[in-house]
Fold this protein.
Amino acid sequence: MKLLVTGGAGFIGSNFIRYVLREHADDRVVNLDKLTYAGNPANLADIQRDPRYAFVQGDICDAALVRETLRGVDAVVNFAAESHVDRSLVEPDGFLRTDVFGVFTLLEAVRECRIPRLLHISTDEVYGSVAHGSSAEQDPLRPSNPYSASKAGGDLLALSYWRTHGVPVVITRSSNNFGPYQYPEKVVPLFITNAIDDQPLPLYGDGRNVRDWLYVLDNCAAIDLVLRRGRDGEVYNIGGGHEVENVVLTHEILRLTGKPETLIRRVTDRPGHDRRYSVDSTKVGQLGWAPRHPFAAALETTVRWYREHESWWRPLKSGEFRAWYERQYANR
Ligand code: NAD
Ligand code: TYD
């Protein structure tokens, strides 16, 4: 297959491109990425000379460019998004632009160019907070913040293009990912790198919010399976099956980095903070997927990766990130 991967210079997209080129020797990948603050060519430094890989810098909202990059493509996998909830609370514009209008632009282009498949990458956050049980694919969407509301908008638009125009879309909704190459604004890499530097770990609220952690390579395997075996017009949840309170996760990171609990700093909660996410992954399980990386071992691997790749994350934690961190956490 020739794939157009959008947002492939980000965290999950770069892991996915590496996964595809390793698992499918005959596949080719074009990576269309705007290179926002979260996009980083260094995430794919090891494959940039692979003849099966090509990079195009550009915006998924640019209809002419999208049509051009679609030439000869068998499937599109859309990872491109503004992805950080906290940023969506203070700068929502870019979320609406990329996560809604960008999806619309891709849908129109895929429709016009008659591309056989568009896999849209979404999130468990579109279901909103789940007090009991787990969200199934047909459950109503109750997003709580501008990030999840924008993602829900993209999902609904994609499904509407399937129903009205027969555009062959499939959607995955995964739980929280962690692993190598995650931009250090998200809780796992933020807390690991802060701990390495003996900096405080800012834990929101009472620290008892629950996330279902999924190792990024398990997500890549599920996405690849849905891409090749999923049914048009369907949504597939992908959960890690490992629900943890943030405070427990934080203690685990401190243990693995060998740092004291005194580094934990309780800070004001995030407005509209969803208490718990949980998805039912039965449907993707029926395609033959199950997570293969147990949480404890995967977190240990991740901590080791950040220890061994300081040259990757240290530059990211200066510049744009430092300004964001000051604004976000200084008076909290
Ligand atoms: P990320 O922020 O690390 O990467 C996003 C990438 O998209 C970056 O490379 C960025 O440059 C690119 N991008 C942003 N706007 C663009 C635009 N207009 N045109 C082209 N490229 C653009 O995000 P991530 O964590 O890798 O998430 C990837 C996808 O997975 C997103 O759609 C996100 O909603 C979804 N998701 C993420 C998680 C998670 O835990 N990280 C969980 C569930 C779903
Ligand atoms: P995050 O990594 O931002 O992912 P999401 O909000 O998409 O789930 O946050 C994961 C959890 O960690 C969430 O409950 C908020 C919490 N959190 C903190 O306690 N402190 C932080 O500095 C950050 C970034 C997140």
Summary: Residues 93-113 form the longest helix (21 residues).
